[in-house]
């Protein structure tokens, strides 16, 4: 019944197929590569695999630009391979969540080709076509229908000379936005989703799903955004397309049309919306079971706590109290109301051990484990991104030629064209580029980390001789086995699923400590720094005298009353 859904106790593992395992030596990961590694994934103990897009695609954004929703891209394999992957997961008691990218398609999708063909095309209205700004000539700078700056730099509008109008693309020009105002578009999406459910998928991760409703005016026009700081000629359009006026309505409709039907085996489906810019109130409304929209969302506030004034390209050192305050706010804000998803990493974020841990040889393992501990024992559904369970690190290449990611390349081009030096721009890109997450999975210490027998599409991180799956699986003290134990705790203990979260020592700059309370009490205390620390946890002497369930440092000093001494990056979990 409601409140008892399987995903409340589940842990999800994200596979980015291009970078996971290459079975045929072409340098790009594929479905047969994943099939060959299912026992590895199962050994971690996860319940679900979320597969980043494998649909047919020109790969302008590594598959987040789809040209056929009903087929597998030949780079990754065939529909038969996908069926085999689903069967292989199900046989091991795991489920498959597909990435659903329906804010936009590829410009090579037949829907868009038809839409673009002429102003009178029956599919014209499936996308956002608008004339140039009044008094302007189409194609000239400033003639765009709105001043919006795109996620991947430049304008969100592309001029189409042939039909004399612009089309909207919040991301790359090869990713035109679908017009969700048109009911035929929505029906086509729901039909496609049901087709995948019938094939055996168990849920959907919905790409930028809170961008599907745009704040269109009755006359069809879209509002300009406030000017961006600096010399940019663009504005911030995000208030006009983020969490738009019809978002709840569309999600509810999708729920009734697809999600309510459940999976092929009769279980409930898992739905998680990727929602950049979502507020706690909106997330509460989207994930409130009574509203029947989505099970959970990926919020982004905690990913922004170390952004500088220039945004994601200007990372600053983390101020721990900011991160704790943010996560605690979401823990409390969704408790008993909606549901949290818990993540440090995905294919868009730098590696957390390099970002908020300490990736030096001395502290890498302990800091990766401790980051896992403080995240996994919160309330919600944890997501592990491939390689996170090994403590994989950033690459931070210094030359733009080493990078492949469209967001990184466009940002570089736009910044250098605007007068910034190569050095300045590269200093921003190194620690944050999405390619940090996309270097090939490190399987063993053989050439190319065992990812491919050919030349990998993106260079392997040179750290692979030390950091790889074979070494981690063989070492009982590895990050891998620590993650496995964390996952086991969630499966075993109701308090991890249901316990009420309370943050301790909110202002402490080194220690992350919290309790979870239900019939039992769980206490997590973690040193999030590379210096030793001693703290008092007033009122916690009882649970500190309880069972030490999990620790990064088995030789650590026992708690003394409510006082705890922790080595650098030491974390402990107590149960009473
Ligand atoms: O990378 C980001 C945060 O650092 C975001 O700007 C990101 O582009 C945004 O969260 C949306 O991401 C999703 O949609 C994109 C795709 O490129 C990403 O890989 C995907 O996760 C467009 O489909």
TrEMBL record:
Family membership: Belongs to the glycosyl hydrolase 13 family.
A molecular function (GO) term: alpha,alpha-phosphotrehalase activity
Protein name, UniProt field: Alpha,alpha-phosphotrehalase
Keywords: Glycosidase, Hydrolase
SMART domains linked: Aamy
NCBIfam families linked to this entry: PRK10933.1 (NF008183)
Domain of life assignment: Bacteria
Source species: Georgenia thermotolerans
Electron transport found in the keyword field: no
Segments forming domain Glycosyl hydrolase family 13 catalytic: 14-438
Pfam families xrefs: Alpha-amylase, SusG_C
Top class in the EC scheme: hydrolase
UniProt keyword annotation of Hydrolase present: yes
Residues covered by region (Disordered): 219-239
């Amino acid at each position: 019944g409601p409140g008892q859904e399987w995903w409340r106790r589940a842990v999800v593992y994200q596979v980015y197929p291009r970078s996971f395992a290459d079975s045929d030596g072409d340098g790009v990961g594929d479905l047969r590569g994943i099939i060959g590694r299912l026992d590895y994934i199962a050994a971690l103990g996860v319940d679900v695999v979320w597969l980043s897009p494998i649909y047919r695609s020109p790969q302008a954004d590594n598959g987040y630009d789809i040209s056929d929703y009903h087929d597998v891209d030949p780079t990754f394999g065939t529909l038969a391979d996908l069926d085999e992957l689903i069967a292989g997961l199900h046989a091991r008691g795991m489920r498959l969540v597909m990435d659903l990218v329906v804010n936009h398609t590829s410009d090579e999708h037949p829907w868009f080709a038809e839409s673009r063909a002429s102003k009178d095309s029956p599919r014209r209205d499936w996308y956002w076509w608008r004339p140039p700004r009044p008094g302007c000539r189409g194609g000239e700078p400033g003639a765009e229908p709105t001043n919006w700056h795109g996620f991947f730099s430049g304008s969100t509008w592309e001029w189409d000379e042939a039909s004399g109008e612009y089309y909207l693309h919040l991301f790359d020009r090869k990713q035109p936005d679908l017009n969700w105002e048109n009911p035929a578009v929505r029906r086509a999406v729901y039909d496609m989703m049901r087709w995948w459910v019938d094939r055996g998928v168990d849920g959907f991760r919905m790409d930028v799903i809170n961008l599907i409703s745009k704040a269109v005016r009755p006359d069809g026009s879209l509002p300009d955004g406030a000017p961006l700081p600096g010399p940019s000629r663009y504005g911030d359009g995000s208030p006009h397309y983020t969490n738009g006026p019809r978002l709840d309505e569309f999600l509810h409709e999708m729920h009734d049309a697809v999600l309510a039907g459940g999976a092929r085996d009769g279980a409930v489906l898992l739905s998680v919306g990727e929602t950049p810019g979502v507020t706690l109130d909106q997330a509460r409304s989207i994930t409130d079971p009574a509203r029947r929209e989505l099970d959970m969302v990926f919020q982004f506030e905690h990913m922004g706590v170390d952004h500088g004034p220039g945004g994601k390209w200007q990372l600053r050192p983390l101020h721990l109290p900011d991160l704790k305050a943010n996560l605690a706010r979401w823990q409390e804000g969704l408790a008993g109301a909606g549901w949290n998803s818990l993540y440090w990493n995905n294919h868009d974020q730098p590696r957390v051990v390099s970002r908020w841990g300490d990736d030096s040889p001395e502290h890498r393992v302990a800091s990766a484990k401790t980051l896992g501990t403080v995240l996994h024992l919160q309330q919600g559904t944890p997501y592990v991104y491939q390689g996170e369970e090994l403590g994989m690190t950033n690459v931070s290449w210094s030359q733009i030629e080493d990078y492949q990611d469209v967001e990184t390349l466009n940002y570089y081009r736009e910044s250098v064209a605007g007068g910034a030096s190569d050095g300045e721009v590269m200093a921003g890109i190194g620690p944050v580029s999405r390619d940090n997450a996309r270097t090939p999975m490190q399987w063993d210490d053989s050439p190319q980390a065992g990812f491919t027998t050919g030349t990998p599409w993106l260079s392997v991180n040179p750290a692979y001789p030390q950091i790889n799956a074979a070494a981690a699986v063989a070492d009982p003290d590895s990050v891998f086995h620590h993650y496995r134990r964390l996952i086991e705790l969630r499966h075993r203990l109701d308090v991890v699923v249901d316990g009420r979260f309370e943050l301790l020592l909110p202002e402490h700059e080194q220690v992350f400590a919290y309790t979870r309370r239900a019939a039992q009490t769980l206490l997590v205390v973690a040193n999030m720094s590379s210096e030793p620390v001693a703290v008092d946890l007033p009122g916690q002497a009882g649970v500190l005298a309880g069972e030490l369930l999990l620790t990064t440092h088995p030789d650590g000093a026992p708690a003394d009353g409510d006082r705890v001494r922790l080595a650098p990056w030491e974390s402990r979990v107590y149960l009473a």
